[in-house]
Amino acid sequence: MSKTRTIIPNGFSIRKIELSDFEDVKIVLAGLTTVGPITLCTYETILNYWNSVKLMNKPSEYAYNTSVIIDDHTHTVAAIGTIFVEQKIIHDGGLVGHIEDIAVNSDYRGQKLGKLIIDYLSEQGEKLGCYKVILDCDVKNVGFYEKCNYNQAGIEMQTRF
Amino acid sequence: MSKTRTIIPNGFSIRKIELSDFEDVKIVLAGLTTVGPITLCTYETILNYWNSVKLMNKPSEYAYNTSVIIDDHTHTVAAIGTIFVEQKIIHDGGLVGHIEDIAVNSDYRGQKLGKLIIDYLSEQGEKLGCYKVILDCDVKNVGFYEKCNYNQAGIEMQTRF
């Protein structure tokens, strides 16, 4: 049974990312990290690529799900996040969801939209059959993710090129 | 330029996982975590699935690379590890490598094969164009990964279903 049940507040909706979100998505993700000089063509190619990667046992479902919270009045992207589902051998050919690139539009802070997108993506991972969903965060955000039903599991290590 | 240059010691070789590795792979991964009652058929389906997921801009390259270190004398799997490459929007449509499920056969401990498989998979990530490779580990293994040119980047959070 699901730990969470995503409740979308009045005035907002959640849907998968679309081509028309391009300008909004660049602005919202720029609040998170470097977006770079990505073109509309590259963006479209990425969305098509994401929709080409299916799950092994559920070929009608996608391994990547990037979803956006939309302000229904302004049609603005208020928040964004991605889950992609990794196929493993361990856990009897189990699936692990990886949540990545969570960002909330600075005009929409303080409305719990960060928790909403995490709850929503976590539910998607559970529905797709993941035995767990993981994400990496700054130390200062551990408390926030604990409120989203996550607990500390290990250390993220990186090497950059 | 690559930070590391994988040097394979005499008596060992590295190659991609194969169907014939099934029994060995189960034993080595069981030293890491629960493998479960996976069948040869499921294992074959996973290997075929991994080989169906290509990179967006390099369709001759695979998003998943599970490689094994082989003892050339006994043809045993001495170590195993996976890198899969995530396609992002950020960093101008950048790629991030995720290293997962590193395990060394208990008969081959103390031969630096853990570092060898990490160096090898990290190099594969760099060659495929990743701007970084990340992995999650126990606190007690941070020092080991630091010797592999990794540094601490954040906290891994998880939710289980």
UniProtKB/TrEMBL annotation, chains A, B:
<keyword id="KW-0808">Transferase</keyword>
<comment type="similarity">
    <text>Belongs to the acetyltransferase family. GNA1 subfamily.</text>
</comment>
<protein>
    <recommendedName>
        <fullName>Glucosamine 6-phosphate N-acetyltransferase</fullName>
        <ecNumber>2.3.1.4</ecNumber>
    </recommendedName>
</protein>
<dbReference type="InterPro" id="IPR039143">
    <property type="entry name" value="GNPNAT1-like"/>
</dbReference>
<dbReference type="GO" id="GO:0006048">
    <property type="term" value="P:UDP-N-acetylglucosamine biosynthetic process"/>
</dbReference>
<dbReference type="Pfam" id="PF00583">
    <property type="entry name" value="Acetyltransf_1"/>
</dbReference>
<dbReference type="GO" id="GO:0004343">
    <property type="term" value="F:glucosamine 6-phosphate N-acetyltransferase activity"/>
</dbReference>
<dbReference type="InterPro" id="IPR000182">
    <property type="entry name" value="GNAT_dom"/>
</dbReference>
<comment type="pathway">
    <text>Nucleotide-sugar biosynthesis; UDP-N-acetyl-alpha-D-glucosamine biosynthesis; N-acetyl-alpha-D-glucosamine 1-phosphate from alpha-D-glucosamine 6-phosphate (route I): step 1/2.</text>
</comment>
<feature type="domain" description="N-acetyltransferase">
    <location>
        <begin position="33"/>
        <end position="161"/>
    </location>
</feature>
<keyword id="KW-0012">Acyltransferase</keyword>
<dbReference type="InterPro" id="IPR016181">
    <property type="entry name" value="Acyl_CoA_acyltransferase"/>
</dbReference>
